[in-house]
Structures are given as C-alpha cells and as structure tokens.
Amino acid sequence: MIDLTSSELGYPWLARLTPQQWDHALNACKRLLEGIKLSREDERIALTLRSDSSKERLGIILGMKYIGGFYIDKDEVYLRFYLGTDIPASVLPKEITHGSTQFKDGKGELVYCPISDWPKVNDILMPLVIDSVEKELESARKVVHRGKHLPFLFDVIFDSTTRKEFINYTQLPPQAKLIAVYKEYLRDTGNSKEWYKWELAKRFRETWSLQDNDFSQALEQLKLDNLISQQATSFINLARKHPEEAWDHFKLIFDKEVPLNERIKQSKIKGDELLVKWHPKWKVAQQDERFLSVLWAFNDPNNYGIYKDSYYRKYCSLIGVRPKKPGNKYEHYLSLLKDFTDQYVITDKELLELHDEFIPKDLSEVDPKKLLLAQNILYIVLDNLWSKDNEERETKELDANPTENEPNEKVRLESMDKTLNTILYGPPGTGKTFNSINLALQILGINVEELSREKVMMHYAEKVAEGRILFTTFHQSMSYEDFIEGIKPITENDQIAYKIIPGIFKEFCTNSSIFQINDTFGRNDKYKIVSVTDNFLRIQRDSGVVDLSRDFIDEIMNAYFDGEIQDEDFSQSGREVLYKKLPTKWDKYLLGYESLYRSLLHYVKEKRESTKKADQPKVLIIDEINRGNVSSIFGELITLLEPDKRKGNINEIEVELVYSKDKFSVPNDLYIIGTMNTADRSVEALDTALRRRFSFVEMMPDPDLLDQTEEINGIHLGKLLRTINERIELLIDRDHTIGHSYFMEVTTPKGLVEVFENKIIPLLQEYFYGDYGKIGLVLGEGFVALDSNENSQFAHMEYPNSDDLRKPSYRLLPINENTIIPALKKLFNTSEEA
After folding, report:
1. What confidence tier does 738 reach under pLDDT thresholds 50, 70, 90?
2. Is 70 exceeded by the pLDDT of residue 214?
3. DSSP letter string over 630-696?
4. pLDDT score, position 710
5. Which residues are CB-neighbours of 614 under 8 A, at least 6 positions away?
6. What per-residue confidence (pLDDT) applies to 393?
7. Backbone φ/ψ region at 44: left (φ over 0), alpha (ψ -120 to 50), beta
8. N or C: which end of the chain has fewer CB within 10 A?
9. Measuring CA to CA, which residue among 394, 543, 386 is closest to residue 9?
10. Angle, to 10 degrees, between the axis of helix 371-380 and the axis of helix 309-319?
C-alpha cells in the first residue's frame, strides 16, 4: 500500500515520467532486487526518492553504494546501475555509457543509458549488474540512507496493483494529488486538531460588530489564536484599551469600497502608526496579509480565505506559477484558492463525504463555499505532511527575493571590504561559516544577495571544482607539514619512501583547475563542460553527455605535455601506437573517444597559456581558525600574508621553504577568510602577529531575523532568543550567547525539541560546566528541576557531619513535543501564551 502522506510524494518531478517510463524503471529495479534476493527488512538496503542539487532520482542504495535506479537530467530520463570495474567494455551493449568511479574503494563505477533503451539492454546488462552487486553483498554494512528508506516502494516494484495505483497517482494534476493526500490524512486523523479554525470562525460571526456601541465589546470577544502573529495579537490587546482610535482602523479593513490591495497597504501604514502611538517601543503592528485574511475570511466566508505565506509560495511552486510581491500576494492567493476550490475541492464527492463525516455537526454550516476546507488542505499537506524533507528548489527559484515573511540570514556583504585577509568572529550559531561562503563567492564576482541558498551552494561547488575556492578547518593536530609542506611516507614499487609533499596551502597557491563549467571546445565548439568534480568531467556533446575520468585525464595530459604522445597519435592510423603508449587499464576510457580527448588536450593547452597571462582570484576559507596553533601552522609565511609583501607588489618577499628549499611567495590574488567561535577562544588569545594582518568582522546573534518567522504554538522565536541571550550575558558575557541560525529552520514543536536537546542545552552545559542551577536561571523550571534530596540516604559509614552533605541539587527535565511549549512559556515567566 502506498503511503500517500510521505513527504517524497510531493516531488513535482514524479509527473515528468510517462507511465511507460515508470514501467521500464520499476521493471529494471525489480530485475535487480530479484537477482540479489534482498527483502525490505534487510537493513543493508534502502529505496529512496530524492530531489536535491545533484539530481531528481529513484535510487537503490546498498550499504554506502548506489547500485541502481534512474535519474532525470534536464528532460531526459536515464537508468543508472553499478558495475564492477572488472567488466570489459566490449561486452556491454552500445547503448551503455560509462560513468566514472564513484566510490572510495575504487571497485566499481556507474553506467547508464536512456530509459527508452531498457528493452534493448536488459538481457545483457542486468546479469552483469547483478553479478557485480552480489560481490558487494558480503561486505555491505547497514545502509547510510536507511532513514530515507521508503518501504512502500517494494510494493510499487513487485505488486502490479500497487504499481498501477502509484503510476496513476504520479500522473494526477498537482491539485488532485493534494486532495488524494488530504483524504488519506482525514481517514487517519479525522482532522481533530484543526476544527478549532471552524470554531473560531463561528465565534467571530456571533460576536463581531463594527457598530459604535458594540465595537468595544467585539474587540474584547475577538479571538484568533495562532492564526495570526504575536505582534498582531499584541496590537489587538492594545486596541482593546483604545477602541475609539482602533475603530477607524478596523472600519478601513472591512470597507469593501476600497480596493483590496489598497486596504492591505493602508492597514499596514495605519496599524504601525497606531502601535507607535500606543506603545512607542514597538514598531511593527503586523497588520499584514495574514492578519487581514483571517478577519476577512471569518467575516465573509463566501468570498475570502485564510492566507499564510508559506503554503502560498509552496502552492505556487507546485502548480508552476510565480508568486507575487508583498501587497499583491493575497489577491493572487485568493484567485488561486477559489480556482482550486471550484475545480477540485467541491467536485470531489469522496472528499466532501469524508469531510462531512468528521466535522462536528454544529460547525457544518460555517464554511458554505468550502474555502476554509481548501485552505486546510494546503496547510496540512504543504506545511506539514510534505514539509519535512521537501523544500523544493523551485520555490526558491520562483521567489528568490526575500520578503517580510521570509527572513534572510545573509550578511550584508556590501558592508565588508574585500580585504585580502578577513576573519568572521562571533558566538556559535551566528552564521559565520554560512557567510564565509557568501563572501568567497562575492569576491569571485558572484552576487549572492538575490540567490536562493541552493543556488549559492551550486555556485560554491562549481568554484571548488574549478580550484577557485578551498575550504579547510584548523584543529589542534594541524601542523606546518599539513599546511605548507612536509616530509611524508609514500609507497613506490611496494617500498616505503619519504618525499617532500606540498601542503594544502602551498598546493592551492600554486595550482588551479583548468576546467571551467560552461567552457566549450573542439571544432565549432561541439563539446561543452557541464560538470566538474574530483572524480569526473562531464561533457555535453550532440549525442548526449559523457563522463570522463579525472584520473585518466591526468594520465593522458601528463603523457601529452611530457611529449610521450603527439597529435598524430590520435589519428586513425596512429591509434595503435597511442594504445601501446598508455597503460592497458585506460583502454575502456579511451575507446571511441579519441577525437574528444584530442580536442580536450588542445583546450587544456590553450587554457594553460591564457592562465599564465591573467591569473584569477582564489579564496581560501579556514573554518575555526583559532582552534589551531596559528604561529606553528603558518610558520615563516605569516609575514607573506601582508598585502604589500605579496607577489608582484612593491615590497614583495620570497622565502625559502624549510623542507624543499623552494622559493615561495603568496599570490596577490589569494583571499583568506577565517571563522572564529568566540565561545571557544577569544580574539585576544590569537597570535598578535596574525591579528594585525587580518580584518575582523563581528557577527553577533540577530533576533531580528526571527521576528518575521511564523510563531510556533504562540512561541515567538525572536523574543525567545533575546530572552535567553540577555540571561547568558548577565551570567557570563556576550561572547557566549546563542546564535540565531539554530532557530532559522524551526517551524514545529518537534523542531524546537531537537534544537534544545541537540544544540542549546549541550552548549549551556559546556558554558556552565554542568552547573544545572545556572542553566535553570537561563531556561527556567520547565527545563530544570530542583531536588531537595531530603530522603536520600548514604551508606552506613562513620563520617563527620555527613548530614551537611545532603544538599539540594538540580537536574535536567526530559522534553518532548508535548512538554516543550509549556516549558518555553515558563521560560518567559508566564503560563499564558508567550
């Protein structure tokens, strides 16, 4: 049976495969699983659906290896399987393309073919794949992706009825998928936790009035719970004290003579003005589209629906439309909600019957047009069932610009001078590593301010592959020999030898990657580089993509530039000589690609010549720079870090390295970005020589980034962080405060539990050296309990004044999804909604 509530079933790419392609893909997986005879209970295997920066795919994982499945590349679907490197290329069907070695043990590679070729390659390829995988079974350990395992995929693969049901589901319009999932949710839960919205709507209509003599009482009765933000709730509380001034404001909100978007604009302006007047220390009344939508939907359920930015953006992504900007979002959402209701909700008889079965009888007339039901479907499926692991990149690409409801953690990079040496320092969780990557890309000319995080990391991966960015972490064991150069043992001809090996810094300064993504080469630019990794180079050509092994590229480049092979060796008549000059193990990589490699070598030659003329900037990121012995690691190169002493500058200095005796200077276009955790070691503890050669940028906790996030059952995250940090500063200092990044992705009580258990409490235990009483002063009695120990008994033993040792002690209380919210309310010193 399919688990329709699985978040993976929300992936839009599922619809990109036709029923025939799904059948081919599932038959291929079936053939493999039947061959290796593994059941769904075997913990060595996992069946996964993924959608991330690498590919959209179905994968069969064995231990630490991908052994089969398919992936989507642009608009093409490819089957992909594991094959042992001992399989000669000559026995494979011509439709099969070699990938590159994907695994650390070097035992196998991935091969692939267009899914349409499955019937042609099945009988030849699959026995080879099964044989290769069986050799891995004995050594396979528990699968690393077991947590992503989807057991129902076994039924989809092996049971024809379930497969048909699954394929039919994938072909549904996205709106119909939402309803299919919601119906499953209704059957499981009865919607018991969400009927309160219908109750609030009913109460509103019974108590709300804009009449002069009734308005004050209506405000007193107004109850919207967690459907609005904490700021909006505070505004209502203040409005109750100033009903006459508030009346004009609410009259504007409900004035249908004023266009909808104008009401939204004016309500925000007027609301903020009133708030400052009523409470000068508060600035934002949050009279936004979310707040207004609740009032409008409760007042006129035939024409309005409840709005929330999170599921609005996800729904836009799901159906492939671009979200509007703030101020125009609600009108757009309302149009989409009505279309969804009219075309899918009220036309689904089974849905309406289920809804009527579970809704309390006294609430059945509250939602005549079913707009509240439609909103509940979007909220339950998009913000809950599909939100766990399914933050689709399309959402970010369609609406990359931050809005008032989308906190943006990116540091203001324009405020940072692009100095050659920079250290970002601050307490844990303030985004230092996050922003070191942003700054590195900014240095290389990529404006990250308007990019989604996924796009940023894609650019980062490209620049790492190109050799323009290097990321390393300092630690107590890091040495000069690791960083600059040292004598290291190596194996040559089964003998131990000792050689001078360059460290990561020297190698990064002297080497750079030739290959650049999107570069073209060959006659009429027939080849294009589309991906660069440590293992392979992916080339786009007219007939498709091909993965070239980086190891083989290095081998053939060395032979070419050492003069062992020449251009004529790649001609038809010279290829026999070429194959003799190269090791036999590379034959399968070269066979059929001679022209491609000749063009690639010409490309490399031209790039080498142009690189000599115009160097490009590079960035070294050193995470936790203060955890290493910086003087020892940099050695004599400390002096060379200064801008005026770098290569090509007026005071250029070269030093003779200790081991190799090479002359060395630091390039003028090398940027160094360090990060430093002030809770681990203060800035003053850094080597003085290093400190004066770096610019320091402080990064402190920024609760403002959390102010616009959604409250979690009444808990305001910005206020929570401020409260915790104020107490930590009183007990220790500002260097030990808690960073905002721990809370940036938290949207549920479960997320709060994970953050406190895995992040906040362990940090406080370290800060206070296990003094749970002080932890209690920060977090409150919802997290820490006092034990009197009056009834505790020592073992019988003569010991002077032993009774004086029976002192009260403190202990941490367990927290879970049910206790976290009450505990946090106690943290605020209130039992009311925080």
Report:
1. very high
2. yes
3. HHHHHGGGGGGGSGGGSTTSTT---EE-TTT--EE---TTEEEEEEEETTTS-GGGS-HHHHTTSEE
4. 77
5. none
6. 32
7. alpha
8. N
9. 386
10. 80
Which one, of 779, 784, 794, 790, lies nearest residue 828 by Cα? Answer: 779
* pLDDT at position 582: 64
User: pLDDT-derived band of residue 147, with 50, 70 and 90 as boundaries?
Assistant: low
Q: Percent helix, strand, coil in the chain (nearest 5)?
A: 50, 15, 35
- Consecutive H or E run containing 600: helix 594-613
Q: What is the pLDDT of residues 254-301, one digit of tens each?
A: 999 999 999 999 998 999 889 888 887 676 787 889 999 999 999 999
Average pLDDT, the chain: 82
Element (H, E) at 228: none
Structure tokens at 130: 């099964």
Q: CA-to-CA distance for 524 and 506, rounded, in angstroms?
A: 38
Helix (H) or strand (E) holding 94: none
The neighbour count for residue 334, using CB atoms within 10 Å, is 20
Q: Report the pLDDT averaged over residues 590-594.
A: 69
Cβ-proximal residues to 516 (8 Å cutoff; 6+ apart), any chain: 466, 529, 532
Q: Are residues 371 and 197 in contact, defined by beta-carbon separation less than 8 angstroms?
A: no
Query: Over 60: is that where the pLDDT of 190 sits?
Result: yes
Q: What is the pLDDT of residue 824?
A: 92
Query: How many residues does the structure list for the chain?
Result: 834
Q: CA triplet 280, 286, 291: central angle to 5 degrees?
A: 145
| CA separation for the pair 313, 789 (Å, rounded) | 54
| Per-residue buried b or exposed e for 131-144, using 16+ beta carbons within 10 Å of the residue's own CB | ebbeebeeebeebe
Q: Look up the pTM and report it.
A: 0.49
Torsion over CA: 207, 212, 217, 221 (sign): positive
Three state DSSP letters for 167-205: HHHHCCCHHHHHHHHHHHHHHHHCCCCCCHHHHHHHHHH
Measured CA to CA, the distance from residue 337 to residue 368 in angstroms comes to: 15
Residue 87 DSSP one-character state:
S
* pLDDT tens-digit readout, 257-268: 999 999 999 998
- Tokens 């509240």 found at: 372
Q: What is d(CA 282, CA 169) in angstroms, rounded to the nearest whole number?
A: 49
Closest CA to 670 of 478, 501, 507, 494: 507
Contact 25, 115 (CB under 8 A): yes
Cα(588)–Cα(792) distance, integer angstroms: 75
Report d(CA 565, CA 582) in Å as an integer.
9
- How far, in Å, CA of 655 to CA of 653, rounded? 7
Q: Hey, is 614 helix, strand or coil?
A: coil
For residue 320, the Cα-to-chain-centroid distance in whole angstroms is 21
First to last CA, the chain: 42
